Every structure is written in structure tokens, then in C-alpha cells.
């Protein structure tokens, strides 16, 4: 192994890729895409204002007043509800009108449908004794895919019917609502430095952000290694390179250079995230309850995040490099690369189980399996730092796995980069490993 050759190759890989438009497009587009698919829909939903003209027909003669009162109430958060029902989703409001049931029910229903089609009203609700006994109320409208509006309507109807039933049973609905108010949890995180109040949802969101950021960068730049090897092999550039550089040094230089590029991308993302969110974070601190703190990025967490990124990158990049060297084009390589994707996707399925219990047997064992370690151990550290011996053991196991994978990939790489023509079989690849 010649360190000078590795350094030259790594420098070439880094500078060549960082100057390309693809790197900067990916660095800027991916955060914008994530915002577009996560934050933007929530903001649009929160800003959306829906107001429906609703006709209520109560054939029971008992619930009309309560229904009209409940539907006419403006949206309110959960804590403000007097009888414990959920708050309405979005900015949904209703303009209710109560109409008595007519002598000809079928004609009345047809007339209500006509008014909906003409745009005079948006929907109508029919309450009858049989439906009420079975906890069903009819809702007729031109659009029945408006699940947010329907959820708000369902909450209001449930509140009204609940109050009617309580009053019929001889109970005071206001008193019952006060006695059955839901209880909120004031979450307090216990750490070595002491206890402090911290929102559970905020802690999960922070851990999830780190997890997904690590996942995306490893997936993107692992694929870049495979694509780069295939390009050099396809253009025969690699034949010139191996004349002056040993295949092992060429592989290590390529891995180190692209790894540094991935770290550069993470630094850019973190810097952008801090700059963009800093004003909002500073403003929101003033509205936090007394003693409540936001999740913080500790020095230990930052160091472990960087280390596990490097380890995770080498775990998957060596696999991708071996796959790229073994095949002749992207189509052939992608068929085998799907197997590698499994080791990236599996932590996603385990993530929520581990979030719920970071110290469970499943969490400990899964986070010590080298292909899963970079993602799952980072998630555990962000949520609740595990014992030091588990972190150190994860380092040792992952480094051992990487050493074995580099040895294996280098042998495949040494022979595969000079092989052209037909698609190799598993037996042929194993022969490369044995005799390289």
C-alpha cells in the first residue's frame, strides 16, 4: 500500500467531483425536495381554510340543537375542548342550518341533493333513530374525499351526540367533561448532567433527522462509487490508471476521496440547516414552557455522527465498488446492487421499534450488526446514549467488517476492472477472490 498514490487518487476524486454541477445540484435539490414533501404539505394544510354550508335534518327531534351548536363552534385546540374531544384538523368551520324532517322523506332527500348540485349548500346530514342507535350519521356531499373536513365534522357530531346521551341519562355534560379532561405528560429527560424538561416529539424529530440524513448520504455516495468504477471501466481509463497505481491503492483512494465529498455535503447541509432554522429556533425559545429545553447537538453526538458516517460509507462503498468492478454496465450492476439496498432499508423498518425502546434486546443486537450499526447506533445515541462498551464494541465490529470487505473488494476489483464481455457468474467472481 503506497500512501502517496492513495492521496493522489483521493485528491483527484474529490476535486473532480466537487467541481461538477451534479454535486451542487444534488446538494441543493435534495434539501428542497425534503422540505417540499414534508414541511410544505403541512403548511398548506395548516393555512387552508375550509367552510361548509351544512343542512342538518334530525328526525329524532333530540339532537338538532346540540348539532347546530357544535358545528357552529370555531376550531379549538384539544386542551380548550370542554368535554374531551379532539380538536379539528386544519382551519375547518361549518355554517349549519337545521331543517325539520318533511312528511315525504324521499322528496326531501332529493331536494337536498338538488341544492348540493346547484351549489346552494355543500353537504347535508341526516340523523335518524336507527342510525343514532348504531352510531352512524349520513353525510351527503359532492366531495367525499375531504378527509380533513370529515374528521372535523365527525368530532363535532360525536361531541353533540355525547352531550345528548349524557343529558338523557340524567348527567350534566359540562360536569362530566370537566371530570374526564385528558391528562398531558410533562416529559423530563434524565441524563448524567441532570434532569431537564424536553419535548418527546422534538427529541424524536431530531433523532429522525440525523438518521435520514445519514441514510441519504450513504445511499447516494455508495452508488456514486459503483457508477464511477463502471464509468472508468467502460471508457478504459482504468487500464491507464492501473499501469501506474496498484488496484488496491486505486480503490482506497477512490473510497477516501468520495467519503470526504460526502462529509463535505453533510457539513453544507448542517450549516444551511442552522442558518435557515436559527431565527425560528431563537423565536420559539421564548414560547417554551418554564424549564423546557430543545434537543441539543452535543460534542459527543457530533463526533459519533461523523465517525459512523465514515464507517457506514466504507461498509457500503466497498460493496458497491466490488459490484461495479464485476459487471460491464449499470443495468447488470443494479440487479446485484438491490441486495445491498436491503441492508440500508432494514434499519428503516427497525427504526420505530428502537425509538420506542432504545435499550431493548432488539435495539442492542441490531445496532451491533455491522451493516446496520452506522444508522442504528447513531439513532440510539441521539435518543438515549447507550453504555460506552456498546459504542466501542460497535466500532470494533464495524472496523473488522470493513477490513474484511476491503480485502474482499480489492481482490474482486483487481481482476474485475480488466474483465469485459459477458456477465460474470458467482463462480467466476469467487475464482477472482481466490487467485487474485
Number of E-type strands: 7
Instruction: Please summarize the sheet with the most strands.
Output: 4 strands, mixed
- What's the shape? elongated
Which stretches of 5+ consecutive residues score pLDDT under 50? Answer: 76-89, 194-200, 287-292
SS class: alpha/beta
Radius of gyration: 31 Å
Mean pLDDT: 75
What is the spatial order of strands in the main beta sheet? 2-1-3-4
N→C terminal distance: 16 Å
Task: Lay out the secondary structure.
Elements: H1 3-18, H2 21-47, E1 49-58, H3 64-72, E2 91-99, H4 105-117, E3 123-127, H5 129-133, E4 138-141, H6 147-168, H7 173-179, E5 188-191, E6 194-198, H8 200-234, H9 237-241, H10 247-285, E7 292-293, H11 299-326, H12 330-356, H13 361-367, H14 373-383, H15 388-416, H16 426-435
Parallel strand pairs: 1-2, 1-3, 6-7
Antiparallel strand pairs: 3-4, 5-6
Helix pairs in contact: 1-10, 3-6, 8-10, 8-11, 8-12, 8-14, 10-11, 10-15, 11-12, 11-14, 11-15, 12-14, 15-16
